[in-house]
Amino acid sequence: MQKLLIKGKKELSGTILISGSKNASLPILAASLLAKEVKLHNVPLVKDIFTMLELLKFIGVKIKIKNNKRSIILKNNKKIKTLAPYKLVKTMRAGVLVLGPLLTKYGKAKVSLPGGCAIGTRPVDLHLFALKQLGAKIKIKDGYISAEAPNGLVGANIKFPSISVGATENALLAAFNAKGNTILSNCAIEPEILDLISFLKKLGSKIKISGRKIKISGKMSSIKNINHKIIFDRIEAGTYLIAGSLLSKKIVIKQINPKVLKYEIKILKKMGVKISIFKNSIFISKSKKLKKIYLTTKPFPGFPTDLQAQFMVLMTQANGISKIKENIFENRFMHVPELRRMGAKIKIKNKTAFIFGPSKLNGAEVMATDLRASVSLVLAGLIANNRTVVNRIYHLDRGYESLEKKLKKCKAEIKRI
Fold first, then answer.
1. Which CATH class is domain 4-19+232-416?
2. What is the dihedral of CA 196, 92, 338, 297, to 10 degrees?
3. Cβ neighbours of residue 168 under 8 Å, at least 6 residues apart?
4. Domain-by-domain residue ranges, the chain?
5. Which of 61, 92, 302, 311 is most solvent-facing, going by the fewest CB within 10 Å?
6. 4-19+232-416 and 22-229 share one CATH topology?
7. How many other C-beta atoms can be found within 10 angstroms of the C-beta atom of residue 279?
8. Is 117 a catalytic residue?
9. pTM listed for this prediction
10. Which of 33, 117, 158, 172 does the annotation list as catalytic?
11. Which of 377, 310, 323 is nearest to 351 (CA)?
């Protein structure tokens, strides 16, 4: 099993190019089932992407990876399996996103209940709630979701009882070919969903957004070739911004849209981090006196749960008691015991973490429990005394492209064994 070895306290300087968004790529790859031929650009080389490609190949999509593997061509076959088996869905929650397009295009789908990071229950109830509203008949048996709509899906007014990124995406994909109009209310409006909507518009769908309301007038496109460039990964960008805030003499983050990171930049500035913003890049350098802050995870445009663990590491170096309230997932403080092993002073009460800083961190052998927790341990290792060993980095590989290579270019001492 692979590990990362990190020697801390090395000042960082250099340029980091941000990859395409994993969380935008996955639903768009699922949406490719609705098209004849799709060419996607700026796709990140991470394990979740390859898992989704394996799933699409199993279903019957022909796939070619070109241009240094950053462009992917997908061609739909006439022989399509409307099945997503457990072996290809168990490690990746996004596999359930093929449910909507298979159902709306082929009238049936059988999809394994999904896996992914163990950060909470994350049920698919809201996905199924939306599909039922569109007229699907659904049964869950032996760990599989079996859905049918032999006469096609029909547009409906759907109000989600709570905001869900995955359920919003599946509803958009299912409504694409439904008869009539569909209105989704109380939707997630993350940049990744806006990128999916941009892709669906290229396929011929008419979609309007107003606040958290989305109106879809779906229709299958006669356009043969669709080209689409995936947006940058805002969570990867946020992670490196935090690395720069902790250790950099000067790091340049490139290939981004700073407007998408508006909230994260505001937090960092409030904590005392030095940031210069340009059109497609950000310059960042560490602050000797970080200020405490209180944060609560919320759906976009609020503070993202996917950056909670990383910001917690930054808080360990701030003066005073910082707080993070986790409102999205019920089990997303699993990195805390590992950070404590390194000397962090953190207490958990109900849904809130209290971080006492500044704390002197020391290298230790630690274990990653999920994707974002794994990268928080890397950040902690970068600022810790002596050597840190991060185990179970297959979590890291699910969502971060060439992390150690990017950090090495900025003079970090980090290697994979």
1. alpha beta
2. 30
3. 160, 184, 187, 188, 193, 214
4. 4-19+232-416, 22-229
5. 302
6. yes
7. 8
8. yes
9. 0.94
10. 117
11. 323
